[in-house]
Amino acid sequence: MTAVHAASLAPPIVLTFAASDPTGGAGLQADILTLASLGCHPLSVVTAITVQDTAGVEAVLPIDAAWVADQARALLEDMPVAAFKLGMLGSVEAIAAIAEVVSDYPEIPVVLDPVLASGRGDQFADEEMIEAMIGLLLPQTTLLTPNSLEARRLAQEMGESGSHGRGEPDLPGCAHRLIDAGCEYVLVTGTHEGTPQVINTLYGSHGTVRTDRWDRLPGSYHGSGCTLASAIAAHFASGVDVADAVAGAQEYTWRTLAAGFRPGMGQFIPDRLFWSRDEDGAEDAST
Fold first, then answer.
1. Alpha carbons 247 and 232: distance in angstroms, whole number
2. What is the CATH number for 118?
3. Which residues contact 249 (CB under 8 A, 6 or more apart)?
4. Among 18, 50, 51, 87, which is most exposed with the fewest C-beta within 10 angstroms?
5. pLDDT in tens, 52-109
6. Which of 118, 108, 103, 144 minimizes the C-alpha distance to 30?
7. Residue range(s) defining the domain that contains residue 26
8. Please, which residues bridge with residue 13 across strands?
């Protein structure tokens, strides 16, 4: 087999920037599982090392920003990347370094999951980091995937800066502030809203693109946001348009949650390989 033929048979490649989660529930490990499950080859850049279990995060050690950039550039100079996925980024310096890296590849779509806190409430991003995300990454973001709490916090930070107006916007208002900051689309997820169903809404520059409602599952899940953002990146890498990528990624994520399991004493973990243990799921995935 020639090198050209081998390259043509390669799966689409997605590069994820995220913190390592030793539980395998969220972070880098969740991204890798999701991307592989959806037929992509995952590349990974470690932005931080964490001490955590399924109940919460005890400590975070950010990786030096130069190391973050060097990891990424070594990969990008070697392999063709079809999509970027950004998760927990560790520090202001790392955010700046990542922004510089992705700016050299404007043709590659960027999915940004603004990980600001853990499910337990452990804070991962201070005001300086949020300002760096808004100023450096949102203008390069194809799709932002905040939950409703993250959308409000990001929009509030922008309002307090005085650059995009003041006041407490509703969720559509939050989305439009974020789009005004430069990202193309915003998918606001409603897990934290307490509605009978989980309502997720995709916004673009001209308003609502699609709204999806999902049965609210019992329990608390570790890594659902990572799964959704990585699934969208996988669909982008496979050439799917934004609306269909968001639809397919939500379907996949809901099924991972419905098949979730509780390996420890804390939250449930999505089963990203549900289809390998479910004959019906395996048939659906093959069609």
1. 9
2. 3.40.1190.20
3. 228, 231, 232, 234, 235
4. 51
5. 999 989 999 999 999 999 999 999 999 999 999 999 999 999 999 999 999 999 999 9
6. 118
7. 3-286
8. 41
